[in-house]
């Protein structure tokens, strides 16, 4: 075992990780998934801590977090926790590896969790493709093992083989969970000697820890891949074509080449060079050529770090192209383009400058990397210590970034493999072949369509196969020798410079990257004058908030102390000192009067402030720019956030779609340049929101403003037009030749991609439930079906006409933070003003500011909404229960947070661990446009939402009883843990700037919200939390504003034997107000699933604009028993999703909304 510690330095959280050199490749053939099963069981108690939830409960009560992962050749466990609880958590954690219980009754229950996790993963197309790869490998190879495990592999198969699964699990644990096969990392505030003492005390009982003299090498189990031939060759995969039926609406081409293991080449990383060139997106690249033809929208290439792709036995070099429908038909030519580019690489020779450019970027990434979360850090370090990676101890921290060993011979070896089409596996996954859900209902004998042939072509004589674990439908066939030879000829011709066929584009290597930073200077901080205010972000309007931090915002050193307990509440100051205030007063006592005295005189916090207005006054008064020079992290990085508020972005479903398409066209037109910036650690984002457009820029500060200028100029300033001149890169200057213009080709590809986003938007039941809930709440929220209908009818001309209106009047808010001084902020302001003036943009008047109101749910009612899953083969169902708790205030917020803190662990332990309702069970605070709420989410493969809701109500009753009798010491421990988390320092500049930006966008300006909330927690008693629960959340809450959303998996319902064709109640979401609040709840009527509705049925089982029928929707009496619900509604229910944001009108009744709060 080895430990890593911080001598004298501070950490935000302490943590530990244990990596064990055993994974799914080690599974016995008869018990596949055993390594994953064992990982689950180690959480289920030990002889020293026998309670099944002892570990989770301890971490929850002390503000910690844990996770674990089973990979192909290792399993890793980690946790993070505040320093005061580190040794306690570590002792429980150590027992995983010393004396776990693995009780048979717990094992049987946890098998259900494994089954639920497996079924949750069945809807992931990437996971299904990985499993198909495994299934088509040689059956005797470890790659062909079923890593996930399920009831069939972990219960039925062992029983059939006469094996005792619990005995086999213990044997597996004894064989692999030994000290020589483990690597442990501790990260704490103590010095290394103290950490070593802590380690020895906790882990001395690990088997094998003292059985070998230090002079002998550790005895490790042999690698399961040792001495084995490759899992795929010409007999089963290479030179073969696999056509795959996906779950989602997608089109992807995967090319896979097996290579020898590359783990030993971590200093040179030859795959990075080739992956960089093949996955490049600039001029002359594969993607640029395919985009110009309207055949692709994205590409990625290289060797990933996942266990299947990078193992001790081999590496898989994969190139994936996201195709358009035209690309699916032309997949053979697209593969030819890939081989033509490989030939261009051969012809250009090995360019050392390309490698050195990548190496320079990697060095900057390593030198100026931002801090990561404690759990992520210790996990990474523990895995890096495993012998399989062979890392030198002096290099293992920087090993992921190393590019210091120029090895052209390795590049040559990889290129030789990639340039041989007979060594390539080709997979085409496309919804043109059908959708998996429909196939599970009864697939035909053949794939319905052959890529590359006509729209209605079929593949005759090729049987459809089904992968047995995930049910993936696919066909396979050997690629025809003439096709393989044709690709090889294309490579050879490109490599020698001979002319390619006329339909092949010009391909060439990229030019040097102009965005690579050359000035990495960290700018000096301004010297504070005597009596000056503390530094903080700054903006430019005259009506700026205070530019200093008032005393009420000073970070508290100690907030409270519970006498007689070891828990006191502390905060780290900028002076990186820890201060404690002790008091003998009884109870949780405020320390506000003595907080300031506990701080050193020079201690302060940095807050955003507005820059003073320029002289003369700016012509664009609706520009508010905040600035803060970094005083904390001191790296050459900066962040810029911009919000362009416009009332036209989400004014209707059609305008939302046009805004989304406009954003996509802007990003697409910039991609060849912004891709270069992203390679050089300069990143940007552009997205549409309810309030308008939001842009983010972050990275090395040297050339960040250059990127900002480039993006803003394309976004705001239209070129071309009736006066002629340069053609607009977004829209053609005339309609002549529109269908074949470059803009039209890009528009068609982006429209198709957006249609797929909408088609897939509700594919996951949990996301579907969330979208339905937000559709009820948000004034401007349209369901995917509405957006998809609008998108289908949109044209390039319509979006081109809309774009000027979108940007004609704006309010601009911004934050510039990081390695930037006042002059940089003023340069950004000048740039914004000049571009807004050039674009002819007017300041947005306050009256025209976009609305984003939230509907008021009726008190004392349970609003029930339901729909069937979009995917006909979906086995999982989802419940989302939501309680609306009113406008956000800091006083109300911390009470809700405390309720969440008390509820989260018992909810998980009861409903997930003990009752095994499903793999995914969680609760959390929801902040929806300034309105507080609490949500519980459950996703289950075993039960329908009605049962999940019933069990949730039963839990809420038992939770109320347990909370009513909660000992004060337990409550104090939970409160302190929550407050300690709020007092943790930001891990990175991005995290800090993102937090400040949220305060600016929401108009709260609580720049030190963590300490403010921690201070407010001083006044939160258990009685207050109980009162909130009893009034607004509990089963008997008289004033609860509650909504429950059911999404039932269609395959789940079919398995339950529910009769088809039962009448559905339509639970519309039209009206929001109740009598006494401005109107009566508006109700839409019922409709059987076989009736033709007024409009087309949506793909998720809901009905658009159904016929009205009185008395069906909102149950006027509170719903208490789910059996009554089931009886009353008579089966599955459908959700109406009318246009206009879902807020319909019934007899002139207006829904009630909270006022705009952001």
From TrEMBL:
Similarity field: Belongs to the peptidase M16 family.
InterPro entries in the record: Metalloenz_LuxS/M16 (IPR011249), Pept_M16_N (IPR011765), Pept_M16_Zn_BS (IPR001431), Peptidase_M16 (IPR050626), Peptidase_M16_C (IPR007863), Peptidase_M16_M (IPR032632), PqqF-like_C_4 (IPR054734)
Database matches in Gene3D superfamilies: Metalloenzyme, LuxS/M16 peptidase-like (3.30.830.10)
Composition bias, Basic and acidic residues: 1057-1083
Key words of the record: Hydrolase, Metal-binding, Metalloprotease, Protease, Zinc
Protease as UniProt keyword: yes
Any single GO BP term: proteolysis
Ranges of residues in domain Peptidase M16 C-terminal: 168-358
Stretches assigned to the Peptidase M16 N-terminal domain: 14-126
Chain intervals with Pro residues compositional bias: 214-229, 534-548
Species for this entry: Nannochloropsis salina CCMP1776
Residue stretches making up the Coenzyme PQQ synthesis protein F-like C-terminal lobe domain: 898-997
PANTHER family in alphabetical order: INSULIN-DEGRADING ENZYME-RELATED, NARDILYSIN
Cofactor: Zn(2+)
SUPFAM superfamilies according to UniProt: LuxS/MPP-like metallohydrolase (SSF63411)
Domain Peptidase M16 middle/third: 366-529, 623-787
Record-level GO cellular component terms: cytoplasm
Pfam family, one: Peptidase_M16
Protein name in the entry: Peptidase M16 N-terminal domain-containing protein
Compositionally biased spans, kind Low complexity: 1084-1097
Region of interest called Disordered, as start-end residue ranges on this chain: 208-229, 526-551, 1057-1158
GO MF terms, alphabetically ordered: metal ion binding; metalloendopeptidase activity
């Amino acid at each position: 075992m080895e430990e890593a510690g911080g001598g004298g330095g501070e950490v935000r959280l302490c943590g530990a990780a244990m990596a064990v050199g055993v994974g799914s490749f080690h599974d016995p053939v008869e018990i596949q998934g055993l390594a994953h099963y064992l990982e689950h069981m180690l959480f289920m108690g030990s002889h020293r801590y026998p309670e099944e939830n002892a570990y989770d409960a301890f971490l929850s009560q002390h503000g910690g977090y844990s996770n674990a992962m089973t990979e192909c050749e290792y399993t890793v466990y980690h946790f993070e926790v505040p320093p005061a609880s580190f040794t306690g958590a570590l002792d429980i954690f150590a027992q995983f590896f010393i004396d776990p219980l693995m009780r048979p009754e717990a094992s049987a229950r946890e098998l259900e969790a494994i089954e639920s996790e497996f079924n949750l993963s069945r809807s992931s197309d990437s996971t299904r493709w990985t499993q198909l790869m495994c299934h088509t490998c040689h059956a005797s190879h470890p790659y062909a093992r079923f890593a996930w495990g399920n009831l069939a592999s972990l219960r039925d198969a062992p029983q059939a083989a006469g094996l005792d699964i619990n005995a086999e699990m213990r044997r597996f644990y004894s064989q692999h969970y030994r000290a020589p096969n483990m690597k442990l990392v501790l990260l704490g505030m103590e010095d290394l000697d103290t950490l070593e003492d802590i380690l020895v005390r906790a882990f001395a009982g690990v088997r094998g820890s003292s059985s070998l003299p230090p002079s002998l090498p550790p005895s490790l189990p042999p690698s399961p891949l040792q001495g084995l031939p490759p899992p795929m060759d010409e007999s089963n995969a290479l030179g073969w074509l696999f056509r795959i039926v996906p779950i989602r609406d997608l089109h992807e081409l995967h090319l896979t080449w097996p290579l020898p293991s590359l783990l030993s080449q971590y200093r040179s990383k030859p795959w990075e060079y080739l992956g960089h060139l093949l996955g490049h997106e600039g001029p002359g690249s594969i993607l640029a050529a395919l985009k110009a033809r309207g055949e692709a929208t994205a590409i990625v290439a290289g060797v990933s770090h996942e266990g299947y792709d990078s193992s001790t036995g081999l590496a898989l070099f994969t190139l994936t192209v996201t195709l358009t429908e035209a690309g699916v038909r032309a997949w053979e030519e697209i593969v030819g383009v890939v081989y033509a580019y490989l030939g261009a690489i051969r012809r250009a020779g090995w360019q050392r400058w390309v490698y050195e450019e990548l190496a320079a970027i990697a060095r900057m990434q390593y030198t100026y990397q931002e801090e990561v979360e404690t759990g992520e850090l210790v996990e990474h370090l523990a895995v890096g210590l495993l012998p399989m990676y062979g890392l030198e101890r002096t290099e293992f921290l920087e090993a992921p970034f190393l590019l210091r060993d120029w090895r052209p011979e390795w590049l040559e070896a990889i290129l030789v493999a990639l340039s041989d089409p007979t060594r390539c596996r080709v997979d085409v996954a496309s919804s043109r072949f059908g959708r998996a859900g429909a196939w599970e209902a009864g697939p035909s004998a053949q794939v319905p369509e052959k890529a590359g042939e006509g729209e209605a072509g079929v593949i005759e004589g090729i049987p459809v196969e089904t992968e047995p674990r995930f049910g993936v439908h696919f066909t396979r066939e050997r690629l025809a020798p003439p096709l393989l030879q044709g690709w090889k000829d294309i490579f050879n011709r490109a490599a020698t410079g001979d002319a390619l066929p006329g339909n092949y584009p010009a391909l060439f290597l990229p030019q040097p990257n102009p965005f690579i930073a050359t000035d990495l200077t960290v700018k000096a901080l301004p010297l504070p004058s005597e009596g000056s205010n503390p530094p903080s972000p700054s903006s430019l309007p005259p009506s700026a908030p205070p530019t200093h931090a008032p005393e009420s915002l000073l970070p508290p050193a100690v907030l409270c102390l519970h006498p007689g307990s070891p828990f006191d509440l502390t905060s780290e100051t900028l002076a990186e000192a820890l201060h404690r205030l002790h008091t003998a007063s009884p109870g949780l006592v405020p320390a506000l009067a003595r907080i300031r005295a506990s701080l050193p005189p020079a201690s302060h916090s940095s807050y955003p402030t507005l820059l003073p207005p320029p002289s003369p006054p700016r012509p664009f008064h609706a520009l508010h720019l905040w600035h803060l020079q970094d005083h904390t992290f001191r790296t050459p990085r900066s962040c810029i956030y911009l919000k362009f508020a416009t009332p036209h972005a989400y004014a209707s479903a059609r305008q939302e779609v046009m805004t989304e398409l406009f954003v996509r066209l802007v990003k697409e037109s910039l991609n060849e340049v912004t891709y270069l910036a992203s390679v050089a650690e300069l990143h940007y984002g552009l997205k549409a929101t309810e309030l308008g457009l939001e842009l983010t820029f972050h990275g090395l500060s040297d050339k960040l403003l250059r990127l900002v200028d480039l993006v803003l100029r394309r976004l705001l300033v239209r070129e071309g037009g009736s006066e002629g001149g340069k053609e607009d890169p977004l829209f053609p200057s005339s309609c002549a030749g529109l269908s074949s213009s470059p803009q039209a080709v890009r528009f068609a590809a982006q429209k198709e991609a957006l249609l797929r986003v909408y088609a897939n938007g509700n594919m996951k039941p949990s996301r579907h439930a969330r979208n339905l809930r937000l559709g009820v709440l948000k004034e401007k929220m349209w369901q995917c079906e509405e957006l998809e209908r609008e998108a289908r009818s949109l044209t390039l001309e319509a979006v081109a006409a809309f774009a000027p209106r979108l940007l004609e009047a704006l309010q601009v808010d911004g934050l510039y933070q990081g390695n930037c001084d006042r002059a940089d902020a003023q340069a950004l302001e000048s740039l914004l003003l000049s571009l807004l003036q050039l674009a002819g943009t007017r300041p947005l008047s306050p009256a025209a500011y976009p609305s984003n109101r939230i509907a008021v749910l009726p008190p004392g009612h349970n609003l029930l909404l339901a729909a069937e899953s979009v995917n006909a083969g979906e086995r999982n169902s989802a419940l989302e229960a939501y309680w609306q708790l009113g406008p956000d205030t800091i006083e109300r917020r911390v009470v809700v947070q405390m309720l969440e803190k008390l509820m989260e662990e018992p909810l998980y332990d009861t409903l997930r661990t003990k009752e095994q309702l499903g793999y995914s069970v969680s609760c959390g605070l929801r902040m929806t446009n300034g309105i507080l709420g609490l949500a519980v989410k459950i996703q289950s493969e075993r039960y329908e939402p009605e049962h999940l809701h019933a069990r949730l109500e039963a839990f809420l009753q038992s939770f109320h009883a347990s909370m009513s009798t909660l000992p004060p010491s337990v409550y104090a421990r939970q409160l302190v843990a929550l407050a300690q988390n709020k007092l943790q320092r930001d891990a990175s500049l991005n995290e800090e700037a993102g937090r400040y930006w949220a305060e600016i966008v929401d108009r709260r300006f609580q720049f030190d919200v963590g300490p403010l909330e921690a201070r407010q927690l001083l006044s939160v008693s258990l009685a207050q939390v109980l009162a909130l629960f009893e009034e607004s959340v509990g089963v008997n809450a008289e004033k609860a504003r509650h909504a429950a959303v059911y999404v039932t998996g269609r395959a789940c319902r079919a398995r339950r034997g529910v009769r088809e064709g039962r009448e559905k109640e339509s639970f519309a979401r039209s009206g929001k107000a109740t009598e006494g609040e401005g109107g009566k709840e508006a109700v839409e009527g019922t409709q059987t699933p076989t009736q033709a509705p007024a409009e087309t049925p949506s793909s998720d089982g809901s009905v658009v604009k159904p016929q009205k029928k009185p008395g069906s929707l909102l149950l006027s009496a509170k719903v208490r028993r789910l059996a009554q619900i089931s009886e009353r509604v008579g089966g599955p229910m459908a959700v109406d999703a009318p246009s206009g944001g879902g807020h319909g009108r019934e007899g002139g009744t207006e829904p009630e909304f909270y006022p705009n709060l952001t």
